[in-house]
Specification:
Elements (H helix, E strand, L loop, with lengths): L5 E3 L7 E3 L21 H18 L6 H18 L9 H27 L1
Antiparallel strand pairs: 1-2
Length: 118
């Protein structure tokens, strides 16, 4: 089980995804998680850790493979997020859901803008 990651979802271009002290990062190919036992907070922590892992594994910023991997990850997570029963979440869960959704959409849009520049 992963240790808790400190998560900051902000509107800046770079995302602060700092693993907790002592947390080891290893690349994992998470594509879609429809695990009913995963609450929205755990999902945010997992997504943040996954993004950090992908970032570390594909460490060449201009790599088409990195770009493709992030694109497929964001797309699959957004698709998976649609399966979460939003109306059954408590108020904090709904806020976390919307923040995560906006974060994923923002990063996916950023990738699209980078595609247009090429």
């Amino acid at each position: 089980m992963r240790q808790r990651a400190e998560v900051t979802l902000n509107s800046s271009k770079e995302t602060d995804l700092t693993p907790a002290a002592g947390q080891k990062s290893k690349y994992e190919s998470h594509t879609c998680h429809d695990d009913d036992s995963e609450d929205i907070r755990q999902r945010i922590e997992r997504v943040s850790a996954d993004i950090s892992d992908i970032d570390q594994f594909y460490n060449i910023a201009s790599s088409p493979t990195r770009h493709s991997r992030f694109h497929s990850y964001y797309t699959s997570e957004l698709s998976s997020l649609k399966n979460v029963p939003f109306n059954s979440l408590n108020q904090e869960g709904k806020i976390d859901y919307l923040l995560l959704q906006n974060h994923l959409k923002k990063d996916l849009h950023r990738l699209s803008l980078e595609d247009e520049k090429k």
